[in-house]
Every structure is written in C-alpha cells, then in structure tokens.
Amino acid sequence: MSRKPHRNSRGLFLGAVLGAVVGYFAGRAVGNPAWGIILGTLAGAALLYRVNPGPRNRGPGKRR
User: Fold this and answer.
1) Which DSSP state fits 60?
2) Sequence spans of domains, the chain
3) DSSP state of 58
4) Interval 5-47: pLDDT, tens
5) Which of the residues 21, 25, 35, 53 has the least number of beta carbons within 10 Å of its own beta carbon?
6) What keywords sit in the KW lines (predicted)?
C-alpha cells in the first residue's frame, strides 16, 4: 500500500506570510527590505510546508 504525499497548503501559506514579515524586518536592518521579503517568503514557506499543523476537522468521528 503506497501512501500519498502530504500536501500542507496551510503551512505553505502561513510560512510565506510569516517569512515575509520577518524577512522585511531582517532585510530592513541589513539595508534592503525587498530582498528580505523575497528570501523570507521562500524560507518560511519551505520550513512550514514540512511542519504538519494537523487536520482541519478534529471533531469526533473524523479519524484517519
């Protein structure tokens, strides 16, 4: 039985947003906020894409 790879779209989006915010301030400190946003978005999205926040519906009867 082969498992389907997990696709974590919420982690991808959340990582992109948080990475952009952190990257903006880091880039601003270095001198170029635009590059900070770009690199922060890529790094944050890649990092949180791997972290699984869990299923959206955790109610009773929703077991996998």
Assistant:
1) T
2) 9-50
3) -
4) 566 777 888 889 999 999 999 999 999 999 999 999 999 988 8
5) 53
6) Membrane, Transmembrane, Transmembrane helix
- Residue 11 has a CB neighbour count (10 Å cut-off) of 20
Identify which of 51, 48, 45, 43 has the alpha carbon closest to the alpha carbon of residue 26.
43
Site of tokens 């790094």: 43
Dihedral (Cα; 45, 50, 53, 54), 10-degree rounding: 140
**pLDDT tens digit sequence for 43-56:** 998 888 877 655 66
Residue whose C-alpha is closest to residue 8's, from 53, 44, 62, 40: 53
The dihedral sign for the CA sequence 54, 57, 61, 64: negative
The Cα–Cα gap between 44 and 7 comes to 16
